[in-house]
Amino acid sequence: MAVSDYTAKQIQVLEGLEPVRKRPGMYIGSTDSRGLHECLREIIDNSVDESLAGVAQNVWVTLTKDDWAVVRDDGRGIPVDKHSSGVSALEITMTKLHAGGKFGGGAYKVSGGLHGVGASVVNALSSNFLVVVLRDNKAYFQEYEKGKPKNPVKEASGEQVAKWFPKEWGIKAGVNLTGTLTRFKLDTSVFKDLKFDKNKVKALLKDRAYLVAGLTFHFTDERDGEVAHYYFEGGIASLVAHSTRDKNPISDVIYYKKEDEAISSEVAIQYTDTYTESVKSFVNGINTLDGGTHVTGFRIALTRSISDYAKKSGYIKEDKNGLTGDDMKEGLNAVVYVKMPSESLQFESQTKAKLNNPEVQGLVASMTKEGLDTYFEENPGDAKKIIEKITLAAKARLAARAAKDAVLRKGALEGSSLPGKLADCQSSDPAVSEIYIVEGDSAGGSAKQGRDRRTQAILPLGGKILNTERAHLDKIVKFEELKDLIVALGAGIGESINYEKLRYHKIIIMCDADVDGAHIATLLLTFFFRHMQDIIKNGFLYLAQPPLFKVIIGKNVYYAYSDEERDQILKEHANGKFNIQRYKGLGEMNPGQLWETTMDPINRTLKQITIEDAEEADKTFTMLMGEEVPPRKRFIQMNAKFANLDI
C-alpha cells in the first residue's frame, strides 16, 4: 500500500483500556516520576472522596518491598452488584473509562474525580491490580493484569482476607467492616525502573490531611520500616503556618471562608520577609498545580485590596505608579481551596492541574476582597507591615527597570552587544546551541579552545556571583557577572522576560570539583530557580560532570568520575603500575582533555536539573541561601556526616 493511501483499513479502533496503554501521557500527564505518583494519587483520592462524602475516617497507604502500592479506606466499599450492562459495578468501575459514581448520581456531592477514569487508568497501567471490597458483612475481590480481569467478581475466602489485610487492621471474617482496598504494581514497560518516592507520598498525604478535617492517614513504607500518621484540625491555616515555619512571618495567618448554594471556598495568607512566593491551590482535595480560575480570582482581589488600602491610608500617592500583581508576590504564602459539586468541575485535562470553571473566579475574588478589607481595618499594624514589604518590592521593581533601561541605552542588553568575554557559537538555532557557564578565566580559556565552535558557546565567570536569594532585581541587573549572563542568554529578566528569545536550549554549569566550585554552582542554581525558573521547567539547565581522577597505567590514560570508577579501573589493572591525579580544577586539564571528558556530546555526562517538588525546593533554597542562620545550622548538624570532605 502506498504511503499516500488513506482508507478505512487504516482507521484503528482501540477497545476498553487500550487507549490508555497506547497513549498513557494523555491520561496521567507523563510516564516519568510525576506520572508514576499521579497514579497513586488517583487511587488515594478515591478514598479521600469517601471522606468528603462523610463516610470514611481513615486511609491507609503502604509501599511494599516488592514495589506494590496498597491503599485502603473505611468508606462504603465500591458496589459489587450487577450493573445494567450485565457485569458487576466493581468491574465496570475498574475497566471502563468514564464510569463511576461521580456523575451526578448522588453518590458524591463533592469529589476530586471528574471523568471517572482514575482507577481504570491506573489499572490499565499496572502489571497486576487487585481490588477487595468490604461490605454487607462479606469481602469481594477481582484481580486484573494490564487492565484485563483475571476472574469475575467473587467472594473472598478467609485465607485470602488474612493474606490481603494485615493483622493490625483487625479485619476478620464475619465482622461487619466496610471499605475498599486497592493493591497494584505499576507496569515496568511503561514506567521503566521508577520507584515511589517516600517523601513525595508523605507530602501528598500531609496535604490531604490538612484539607480534609477529621480524616486520618496512616502511612507505612515497608522498604525501610518507616511509619507515619497525619491528622490536622487547623485546616489550610495550619498548612500555611507549616510552610512558613523556617521563614520570618511579618503578619499573622489571614483566613477567610465563604459559601454559596453550590461552592465553598477558603483562603489562608501569610507574608514573610523573603523575596519569593508560594501559592498552593486545591479543588475538592486535588492539588491544581497550574492554578486556574480560583487562583486568578484570588490574585486579582489581592492586588485590588492591598492597593486600595495603601492609597486610602496614604502609604502611596494616587498620582504615583500603582502597585502591581508582581509586587504582591514577594514573601507571599497562600493556600486557595475550593469545594464544589463534582459534576460541575471543569479541568483542563485528566491530570486536573488547572481549574477552568469561570464562576469560581468571581466567588473567590469577592471573598478575598471582602476578607482582606476587613482584616486590614481590624489589624492596621499587620496591614502596615505588609504594605511596607510590598512598596519596597515596587521600588525595587522600578529601580530594576531603570537600571535595565540604563543598560539598554548603552546597548548592552540587545542583540549586537553581547558580552566581550562570551565566545559565542556559530549556530543561531537555539535547539542545537548550548552555552557553558565556566568558573574562572583559566578553565574558560581551555573550554574556548577545546569546544565545538559550531554549537558550543563559552561564558567564563570571574569568581562567585551575587547571592540572589537575598537580592532585589535592581541589584541583580547591576551585578556585572549576572548582567553578562542575562545578556548572553537573550531572554531578558523580570517583568520583560521572554523565553522565546532564549538563545540556547542547553545551559550547562561547569565548575571545579572543590568547595568553591560547589558554592558557585549553588549560587547559579539559586539565580535560575528564583529568577528564570522556566528554564529549569523546560529542561534547559544542566550540570557538567568533569572527571575527578586521571589514572595513568603504563601508556594508557583512564578517567574516573567517582571513587567507585577509580577503584574499578585499579581492580581491572591490578598488576600494572599506576599514577593517580585528583583533579581539583577544570584549569588542570588541557583543551583536548576538557573536550574529551566533559564537552564532547558523545562521551560527556550531564546532569539535567529538574524541579520535582517546588515547595520543598523553595524551602531548601530559603534555608541554605537565606538570612536565617538557625535553620541552616540545624541542617548542617544533621547532614554533616554525608558531606564529601574530599572536595
UniProtKB/TrEMBL annotation:
Its EC number is 5.6.2.2. It holds the Pfam family HATPase_c. Its cofactor is Mg(2+). GO terms for biological process: DNA topological change. Residues 433-547 form the Toprim domain. Keywords: ATP-binding, DNA-binding, Isomerase, Magnesium, Metal-binding, Nucleotide-binding, Topoisomerase. It comes from the Bacteria. Signal peptide: none annotated. It catalyses: ATP-dependent breakage, passage and rejoining of double-stranded DNA. Belongs to the type II topoisomerase GyrB family. SMART domains: HATPase_c, TOP2c. InterPro entries: DNA_gyrase_B_C (IPR002288), HATPase_C_sf (IPR036890), HATPase_dom (IPR003594), Ribosomal_Su5_D2-typ_SF (IPR020568), Ribsml_uS5_D2-typ_fold_subgr (IPR014721), Topo_IIA (IPR001241), Topo_IIA-like_dom_sf (IPR013760), Topo_IIA_B (IPR000565). One of its GO terms (molecular function) is metal ion binding. This is DNA topoisomerase (ATP-hydrolyzing). Transmembrane segments: none annotated.
